[in-house]
Specification:
Helices cover 80% and strands 0% of the residues. With 469 residues, it is an all-alpha fold.
């Protein structure tokens, strides 16, 4: 029996226990990674403009603060290139540990960083350098986490398994928002919070590093990579192969993520928080608690999307999510403008539901698009490029559009464009649910991923897979 056949069979009881360990490890590790990433974005909208960019003036300082959120995304592809190369050569698990430690160290150091008032221009420079390290780590972490989950799973449960590391993103956002809300609630967002309170969530990361390190070290290597390594078939230059033969898949799949990222970073990138606090004058702690609510909704909609992806297919689930996003991009700001805090909750409910439906199936679909020997490079680089194009500067673009037009209509139009772009790319890709992921099936994996190739080259349709369960 080949590895590809083994991985499509039903799980034995021992395998189910292994699946639970993998789920726990990927969720916990990804939560820690993204807590670190989002705590920065949350603070960028609340305090960094005052602490690191104040001499530029209030408006420019806020733009510069949001720009540092985006600039880190430019380094995510580099992190994806490095982690993708070594993940395809030395293994998925090793890169998961490295990226976790790098992210945690950068976050902890931000918590100890002197401000502009203390060391002048060196403060924003150091802040930017540490944010770049966060970007490198985030670029490499995601690919390893999703492949550990998806490549361990049987074919009919890949959608659910792929949603596990995805759940770490809303959980990380929930933890970051909750921690900041706790600090602003206990310490009023005045002198004390600006002086030292904002540092606590960053410094707490050192504890999370230890927890995540222990958990990720305990996870077994992906069975797909273990088989590749056993045969000595690691690609020597996986990135070269990726861009030479599969560049079109990288572009299309990255554009799918653009449709999710632009809307997602209205919340996780801090723009909506800043808008609610600075424009609508809603209490800071109340806004952060609302963000916790949004993260909880995002968590459950992502989990639901994983199940839907197995039931109706990755592509169909995406299209439903994009349809919802297209409908809500204008009303979400109307709700905040007219409804105050209740309106903010309603807007976040709509945003988070759409985000989950276009995020939960992403891991399984990306893993099924690329051949086994270059899969880490493929999913990591595609995800990183999608994040750059869709989320990197979304908060800054939104802030510029708001400042230039004085209305959120321009921001909504921008979000609608990104959503339609993602939906269009989705229509160009074929659902590959059920395709074997092992190294014995690279020929099948290498063809039929787009709607422009013969259908017989693609993997088994969802309907056929469902009939085999």
């Amino acid at each position: 029996m080949t590895l590809g056949t083994t991985m499509t069979s039903a799980l034995a009881p021992g395998d189910r226990a292994s699946q639970r360990r993998i789920a726990f490890a990927t969720i916990i590790g990804t939560t820690i990674e993204w807590y670190d990433f989002f705590i920065y974005a949350t603070s960028a909208g609340l305090v960094f403009a005052q602490l690191f960019f104040q001499p530029a003036g209030k408006e420019i300082a806020l733009l510069l603060s949001f720009a540092t959120v985006g600039i880190s995304f430019l380094f995510r592809p580099l992190g994806a290139f490095l982690a993708g190369h070594f993940g395809d050569v030395i293994g998925r698990r090793a890169m998961l540990v490295v990226t976790l430690v790098l992210m945690g160290a950068a976050t902890t150091l931000i918590g100890a960083l002197p401000t502009f008032a203390q060391i002048g221009i060196a403060a924003p420079i150091c802040l930017l350098l540490l944010r770049i390290l966060q970007g490198l780590s985030a670029g490499g972490e995601w690919g390893g986490a999703v492949l550990m989950a998806v490549e361990h799973a049987p074919a009919h449960r890949r959608g659910r398994a792929g949603s596990w590391p995805q759940l770490g993103v809303p959980l990380g956002f929930l933890l970051a928002s909750g921690m900041t809300a706790l600090m602003t609630g206990v310490i009023s967002p005045g002198a004390a919070y600006l002086q030292w309170g904002w540092r606590v969530p960053f410094l707490a990361s050192v504890i999370l590093i230890v927890v995540g390190f222990v958990i990720r070290r305990s996870v077994e290597e992906s069975p797909v990579f273990a088989e590749i390594a056993k045969r000595g078939k690691q690609a020597s230059l996986p990135i070269v192969t990726l861009f030479k033969r599969y560049w079109h898949l990288v572009i299309l799949a990255a554009l799918v993520f653009v449709g999710n990222g632009a809307l997602g970073y209205m919340t996780t990138g801090g723009f909506l928080n800043s808008y609610a606090i600075n424009v609508q004058s809603i209490d800071t702690t109340a806004v952060l608690i609302a963000a916790v609510f949004a993260a909880a909704v995002w968590f459950f909609s992502t989990l639901l999307a994983g199940y839907l992806a197995d039931a109706i297919g990755r592509r169909n689930t995406f299209l439903i999510g994009f349809a919802l996003q297209a409908v809500i991009v204008f009303p979400i700001f109307w709700l905040v403008d007219a409804g105050g805090l209740p309106g903010l909750y309603a807007a976040l409910l709509l945003i988070s539901t759409g985000l989950g439906l276009t995020y939960g199936p992403l891991a399984a679909w990306y893993a099924e698009i690329f051949p086994a020997s270059i899969r880490f490079s493929g999913v990591s680089i595609t995800y990183a490029l999608g994040a750059v194009l869709g989320g990197a500067f979304a908060p800054m673009i939104a802030q510029m559009l708001l400042g230039a037009t004085g209305t959120t209509a321009a921001v909504s139009a921008y979000l609608l464009f990104a959503t339609l772009l993602g939906a269009g790319a989705t229509l160009c890709l074929r659902d590959r649910s059920g395709i074997p992921l092992g190294p014995d099936h690279e020929a099948e994996q290498a063809s039929g991923a787009t709607m422009f190739t013969p259908r017989e080259a693609a993997g088994a349709p969802v309907g056929e897979l469902a009939g085999k369960r």
